[in-house]
Amino acid sequence: MALLLPLDDKSGYVFCKQFGFFCKSLVQAATSDDDGIIDMKAITEAVPSDKEQQQNDNPREKIVFEALCCALSWRKEFVAVALSSKFIIVFKAADRTVIRAFRISRFPTVILFDKDDEHVIVSDRAGHVTRYLAMKSPEKVEQRREITGELTNYEGEPLSGTFSMILDLVLSPDGRKLAMADRDEKIRVSRYPQCFVIENFCLGHTEFVSTMAVHENRLFSSGGDATIKEWDYQTGQLLRESAPLKLAAQKEVKPIRKIFLFSLNGKLHLAAFSYEMKAIFVVDEGNLATIAEIPLDDVPLHAAHFEGPIFQIIARSGIYRICCETRSVEKIETCAQLLELLKDAAEPMPITYKNVAYNNAEQYFERKRTKFEEIAKGDRTRKGKKKNSNGKQDAQGMDESAESVQA
Predict the structure, then answer these.
(1) Euclidean distance between CA atoms 153 and 82, whole angstroms
(2) How far apart are CA 107 and CA 87, in angstroms?
(3) Which residues form the signal peptide (predicted)?
(4) 279-284, strands of its sheet edge to edge
(5) 0.85 exceeded by the pTM?
(6) For the domain with range 2-265, which CATH number is right: 3.40.50.720, 3.30.230.10, 2.60.40.10, 2.130.10.10?
(7) Predicted confidence (pLDDT) per residue in 52-105, tens digit
(8) Of 80-84, 153-157, 247-251, which range is least confident?
(9) Where do the structural domains in the chain lie, given as residue ranges?
(10) Which phi-psi region, left, alpha or beta, contains residue 385 (left: φ > 0; alpha: ψ -120 to 50)?
(11) Between 127 and 392, whose confidence is greater?
């Protein structure tokens, strides 16, 4: 997997495999000297672990070391990266000084800083949302209860829990609301940090919700059904929705993995990326109509918004700069080491469609019918054996009687 994280309109980080590359310019060239390369695997291997954490690191579980998600603090001073090895690394954006590196109990899906940059909020595949201290380690990690009630020695403050995988998190502009999008087509808007208080649900998607963007009191979302929906997240009301985003020659819709809000000619627009299509959709915020389809040379692994109408995508063939105003796509010079890592970068996200094409009740009754047939067959077999056994005993008794009469 490969991630792009812009720091300003020119520089940023690229994460691929176990390395993080600081690039002074992502406009003309994505290059980094040795001082700008972070070996995240080496950082995590230096962190001690207790018995519970050692048991959680299943040696039989073959994990490819990847950066799964990353975030920039609100003041743009710190970077947080969540890894497939169940680690979080927080470091200074300017000089890559590591502030913290700590373990978490489950595979992360989304990470972001809260409004004061004191905590990182992390969701995982089990549907749990937990926050951790970002700038300092806790003085003492005491045994605590997970959101499920189980005792654990891992640090962190549980915020919320659900049975569905969390696919995206976004904070409201004032930092007082946390929206959580999940695999079960739902968006929950909770009070932060008292996330057990659910303010509203935004319901209407027919497939998983993988991406959200917020502007003032409005929330935009998209996902597996490839539609963009606009909500008033304070009431949960659906304001408008788009038609499914797809190319003219395309028969099936592909999931939208990331949407961004940006300003173009004084108007608000959305850019929608699918990690399964070689195209970017530019959508008018006013009526959610598609106004442009910008073709790409490669399928994106990840996308990032730099400033105004400028976006960048990272693909297996390199890094591309896109201008939604001129609808131009330009390939950026990329260092050889990063290009080599990108060639076999993992897919950004597993397929999260749920298999609902079958009838659960019909399958249940079929299994029940088969089970009863097996039981009935077993009963007939046992009765047959018993009858044969009784027949042999009767024949043996008659022979014994005949022998006694002859005697």
Answers:
(1) 19
(2) 9
(3) none
(4) 258-264, 267-273, 279-284, 290-295
(5) no
(6) 2.130.10.10
(7) 566 666 554 556 789 999 999 999 999 999 999 999 999 999 999 999 999 999
(8) 247-251
(9) 2-265
(10) alpha
(11) 127
Count how many residues are written for the chain: 407
Type of residue found at 368:
K
Position 215, amino acid:
H
Select the more confidently predicted residue: 398 or 83: 83
Give the count of beta carbons closer than 10 Å to the beta carbon of residue 118.
13
Q: How far apart are CA 309 and CA 93, in angstroms?
A: 24
